Amino acid sequence: MTCPSCRIALLAIAVLALSSIISPSATAQQRVEVGNAASVAGNVTLENNRLEKPIKVKRRQRIAWGDVIRTKKNSQMQILLLDRSSFGIGQRSRVRIDRYVYDPNKGRSLFTTFIKGALRFFSGSSKGENSAEISTPSGRIGIRGTAIDMLVGEKAEDIAEDEGFVGSVRSDDDEATLVVLRGPGANTQSGLTLGLADVTGAGVTVVLDEPGLAAYIPREGAAPIGPFRISNRGLARVQNQILPRWARSLKNGGILDEVIGGAAAAAIIGAILGTTGGDDDGLGPNTGGIPNNPNNPTTGNDPNGNDNCENANGEPVRCPPGIN
After folding, report:
1. What single-letter DSSP state applies at residue 191?
2. Burial grade of 154 (CB within 10 A; 0-12, 13-18, 19 or more)
3. Are 43 and 71 spatial neighbours (Cβ–Cβ below 8 Å)?
4. Phi/psi class of residue 230: alpha, beta or left (left: φ > 0; alpha: ψ in -120 to 50)?
5. 24-57 pLDDT per residue, tens
6. How far apart are CA 216 and CA 219, in angstroms?
7. Among 84, 101, 129, which residue's Cα sits nearest to residue 263?
8. Interior/surface letters 69-88, b for 16+ CB within 10 angstroms, e for the rest
9. What angle do CA 141, 35, 146 make, to 5 degrees?
10. What is this structure's pTM?
11. Which domains does the chain possess?
């Protein structure tokens, strides 16, 4: 085999063999971290194409591009992103982080697929150009500098159709999407600014620009219904899906039935009160370093590995024992 074509064939085989050896390692280095699990309650799992089977999520679990988060009944989780934005994922939910890029000097872009369940999103840093886009089975939600609650599935249908503005419409149990603009509370100190959400379905866009306004997409191929002002009862029902364990504990006259890290607890309680909680991102230093990672975290916890806790007024306090 001395002919030129034979040598080319052998070279091609060698290149393919080499690439098969290098690819797994190269792929492993492409895991791009976006934040971590600031709080976890109940049965929450994570899966991606690098794992043979789903793993149980623990507090401080690193979250990256392509990760799919699943929560079971009476379970919830909060993800803190590098720009201090946060996802509150409610019970019976499934969410995938498609892409997230953050530069402290330029801003943040986020693309997420919300497959089912309950979700609360708080926009973080107001510096730079910040955008977020959440896709659902029936539409797309564009978010600019604000806070929203979302439901996808049967609960979205039940709550929306009990609102007088919506009434009885043809909905799909798996595709129905309800979006509520929450906005910051009057006493927020975190820099969260009032923004808006664009809710798009079937080529039609509805703009939510005041806290309390909502829009409902009943199924794929349907235009959004709204905007309308959701009732207090409807808002409470949405919140019960996003924070089921908090709602259950309060209903029983108790407190949170699991001890959560200080920053995470502050963020969750702040979400209920209409604030953004504290400004500790709970991420800690990035060790290991990912080549060409656009999300190299530069902020973290106390250098000694302790959480920076806050009281109900957002003032820094010493963390109680056992929550670090």
Report:
1. -
2. middle
3. yes
4. beta
5. 444 445 778 889 999 999 999 999 988 889 999 9
6. 9
7. 84
8. bbbeebbbbbbbbbbbbbbb
9. 35
10. 0.69
11. 33-251 (2.60.120.1440)
